[in-house]
TrEMBL record:
<keyword id="KW-0472">Membrane</keyword>
<dbReference type="GO" id="GO:0005524">
    <property type="term" value="F:ATP binding"/>
</dbReference>
<feature type="domain" description="ABC transporter">
    <location>
        <begin position="2"/>
        <end position="238"/>
    </location>
</feature>
<keyword id="KW-0067">ATP-binding</keyword>
<keyword id="KW-0410">Iron transport</keyword>
<dbReference type="InterPro" id="IPR017871">
    <property type="entry name" value="ABC_transporter-like_CS"/>
</dbReference>
<keyword id="KW-1003">Cell membrane</keyword>
<dbReference type="Pfam" id="PF00005">
    <property type="entry name" value="ABC_tran"/>
</dbReference>
<protein>
    <submittedName>
        <fullName>ABC transporter ATP-binding protein</fullName>
    </submittedName>
</protein>
<keyword id="KW-0406">Ion transport</keyword>
<keyword id="KW-0813">Transport</keyword>
<dbReference type="InterPro" id="IPR003593">
    <property type="entry name" value="AAA+_ATPase"/>
</dbReference>
<keyword id="KW-0547">Nucleotide-binding</keyword>
<dbReference type="InterPro" id="IPR051535">
    <property type="entry name" value="Siderophore_ABC-ATPase"/>
</dbReference>
<dbReference type="InterPro" id="IPR003439">
    <property type="entry name" value="ABC_transporter-like_ATP-bd"/>
</dbReference>
<keyword id="KW-0408">Iron</keyword>
<dbReference type="InterPro" id="IPR027417">
    <property type="entry name" value="P-loop_NTPase"/>
</dbReference>
């Protein structure tokens, strides 16, 4: 479904992402993890063409993004960044309706079908009681759901999420991740998201991609990637990795900062 091949992305002459390749199959949830400053968000923005790539290419459904018009890309792929802001007077319903713009000509108004899709997206995200509320009046978790509803109204095949749980308390983090899983399983949307929490990545991902200093360190299923050796090597942390009998994914228990390796 989504292929990033040998992507290199630079800022001010510094290579932030280096020769990075990622394969995401249709219907997968793939989480990108790695230490702060390793290039996770930069990679996601490069894949979405929010920022230019120095080299490499991105394909979606076999078609190279460079050969596609921006409007067409917006119809099939949506990215939600860490900090999303709306005008102070924008309601949830108005925000969600913006998801229909990639499917309209600049002079077209929303049709009955568009309004039905907006209603559907609001229902899918449990926001029916909030549709007339101002987005700025919502809690962090509610606002994040409103942005996801906007993305659903866009009807994308691929949804990119840059740290969707940032600034949320634990309950709202889990609420958003459960919504992401529902969107994936019930609507068939392919998800690529950047996460910090290793246990959340373990529980909500089909595949995990580890990025370290801009390069691909490891990719695979959570049980194969989230090992003590990987956590020590990539994060510099000693951890216990627990496999519970009724869970298909490991649980991570950080213990202490790892001792530097002797030379």
């Amino acid at each position: 479904m989504l292929q990033a091949e040998a992507l290199t992305i630079s800022y001010d002459g510094n290579k932030i992402v280096k020769n990075f390749t990622l394969q995401v199959n249709e219907g997968e949830i793939v989480s990108i993890i790695g230490p702060n400053g390793s290039g996770k968000s930069t990679l996601l923005k490069g894949i979405s063409r929010l920022i230019p790539c120095e080299s490499g290419r991105v394909r979606i459904a076999g078609q190279e993004l460079r050969s596609m018009q921006n409007k067409r890309i917006s119809q099939i792929m949506c990215i939600l960044c860490q900090s999303n802001q709306t005008p102070a007077d924008m309601t949830v319903e108005e925000l969600v309706s913006y998801g229909r713009l990639p499917h309209k000509k600049w002079y077209e108004r929303l049709s009955m079908e568009d309004y039905e899709i907006v209603d559907w997206a609001i229902e899918q995200t449990g926001l029916a009681a909030f549709r007339k509320r101002l987005v700025v009046s919502l809690s962090g978790g509610e606002a994040q759901r409103a942005w996801i509803a906007m993305a659903l109204a866009q009807r994308p095949k691929v949804l990119l999420l840059d740290e969707p749980t940032t600034y949320l308390d634990i309950a709202h983090q889990l609420e958003v991740l459960e919504l992401v899983r529902t969107v994936n399983q019930e609507l068939g949307i392919t998800i690529v998201m950047v996460l910090h929490d290793l246990n959340q990545a373990s529980a909500y991902s089909d595949k995990i991609c580890v990025i370290q200093k801009g390069s691909l360190a490891l990719t695979g299923k959570p049980r194969d990637v989230l090992t003590r050796d990987m956590i020590r090597y990539v994060y510099g942390v000693e951890a216990e990795v627990e496999f519970v009998a009724d869970a298909a994914f490991p649980r991570i228990h950080p213990l202490k900062k790892a001792q530097p390796m002797a030379h």
